[in-house]
Description:
The protein is globular, with a radius of gyration of 19 Å. α2 (44-51) crosses α3, α4 packs parallel to α8 and α6 runs antiparallel to α9 (199-218). A hairpin with a 7-residue loop joins β2 and β3. It folds into two domains: 11-85, Orthogonal Bundle (Arc Repressor Mutant, subunit A), CATH 1.10.10; 109-237, GntR ligand-binding domain-like (Four Helix Bundle (Hemerythrin (Met), subunit A), Up-down Bundle), CATH 1.20.120.530. The N and C termini lie close together (9 Å). The strands form three sheets. It has a two-stranded antiparallel ribbon. The chain has a two-stranded antiparallel sheet with strand order 2-3. It is mainly alpha-helical. It has ten helices and six strands, in the order βαααββαβααααααββ.
Amino acid sequence: MSTTDVLVGPxxxxxxxxxxxxxxxxxxxxxxxxLSPGDHLPPERTLAAELGVGRSSVREAVxxxxxxxxxRTQTGSGPSAGAIIVATPHGAMSALLRLQVAAQGFxxxxxxxxxxxxxxxxxxxVADAASPALDEPRRLLDAMDSPDLTPQEFxxxxxxxxxxxxxxxxNDVVTAMMTGLRSSIEGYVQAGLAAIDDWxxxxxxxxxxxxxxxAAIDTGDALVARSRVHAHITGYYAQTALVTEDRSTPETTAxxxxxxxxxxxxxxxxxxxx
Length: 274
């Protein structure tokens, strides 16, 4: 066996990925209780100095956190001004999965297969519900319509959208699992950006697929919802070709370590010796 490890990063502080380290830092503080709903996020200048990133990266992270519904921002002065925590990620189980991702990552193929199992069940359950709570998924879809989003920001919201569908199912275990896998999901979808020649066309397609999933749920068609989420997940996976598998190299795999405070995604490819 021979192993070739490819590391994308670590990212420089002024790299586009710097805002992800801010995002990971804030989410970690939400999970460990350092920050709680009602608390103010530290000032932009403080976060930038603490994490060694530019203030523009802090602003981008705050923008994504707000779109995810974790914080609310308000201009002006007084106790209600600034960025205020309004929600927290799901707790212990998701935290354990995040630790696993941070420690050694998961194979992309395993993440994709797990998504197919979980999300097919999620959309079917939500479609069968009498009055599914879809306000959050719809809000995230609207946020993804912004023409000002970078591809990285779009994909962060995309991952949050899929977690919000799990939350809409009302199944706390599935929601915690999807929340814990979110950084791994975000890791491989962002790693796949390099393989996309026309991002604008891809973003249009992804928006249409998201809306199609919601439309099937709205009509209560569980079979169509399952089919559309399956096509959506496998379509991006096939387009980006993060893992090349054929019969001559059956052991080819890729391992994703999600964006974190270290700011890098690790892809490990293993092929038999020639």
